[in-house]
Design goal:
This protein has 220 residues and is mainly alpha-helical. It has one domain. It has 8 helices and 5 strands; from the N terminus they run αααββαααβαβαβ. A 3-stranded antiparallel beta sheet has the order 2-1-4, with no helix packed on it. Strands 3-5 form a two-stranded antiparallel sheet. The mean pLDDT is 97.
């Protein structure tokens, strides 16, 4: 799942005790930001495998530090501490940490069995990537439903606040379309370095757009 991970961030951002939306956008993909960073330096592994799932050819065969439940909880705790160190209270930190951990829970729905509890078997995953007619509506509902919730509970600050959510929605739609339409690999083999850079670039674009939204919207 990609934009679906932002659903919890949008909902959490409507709490007055929560970090800002842009911080929560980082939290929502913090696990994958760590994964793609680790992929680039060889700490975690992924290979291309034609037909790994119906929707993509990713064989995520070694990611114990980011996509285990224990790992996600540790990343969430670290994120909570980081928020507290910036001067926010522990409530804000716990909200941010919960959004980090939500990534693993949502991944559990779509991944084939390649998630773990603590980096070792059993492998977990309900495999909705093999059922696009379920995964696609679910992804859209999480992503754009969350955005609609956020917009309905905030008000614009100046004219920019009227347009910024539309820009974010367009960015989400375009990047999700690219994600869905990337062709399956033709042969099995190591994932190219471009995979990690593309992922990190996509997250950076949406974080930047969410920052614009956060600066131009206020809770109603």
């Amino acid at each position: 799942m990609f934009i679906g991970h932002y659903g919890p961030a949008f909902v959490a951002a409507t709490s007055r005790r929560s970090p800002r939306l842009d911080t929560l956008f980082v939290a929502a993909q913090f696990v994958d930001i760590a994964f793609f960073s680790f992929l680039l330096i060889g700490v975690e592994k992924m290979r291309q495998l034609p037909g790994a799932t119906v929707m993509n050819g990713m064989d995520l065969y070694s990611m114990p530090y980011t996509h285990s439940l224990v790992g996600a909880l540790c990343w969430g705790a670290a994120f909570a501490v980081a928020i507290r160190l910036t001067g926010r209270d522990w409530v804000a930190g716990l909200i941010g940490g919960a959004v980090v951990v939500s990534h693993w829970v949502i991944d559990l729905l779509v991944h084939r069995p390649d998630l773990t509890i603590a980096g070792k078997p059993p492998a977990l995953g309900f495999g909705l990537w093999n059922h696009p007619w379920i995964e696609i509506p679910l992804e859209l509902a999480f992503g754009f439903g969350g955005l609609a919730w956020y917009v309905s509970r905030t008000r614009p600050v100046g004219n920019a606040g009227r347009f910024s959510p539309w820009a974010l929605a367009a960015g989400m739609a375009i990047l999700q379309y690219v994600n869905w339409t990337m062709p399956q690999p033709e042969v099995a083999g190591p994932a190219p370095a471009s995979t990690g850079w593309l992922g990190l670039t996509a997250y950076a674009i949406l974080i930047a757009l969410s920052l614009w939204v956060a600066r131009t919207r206020r809770l109603a």
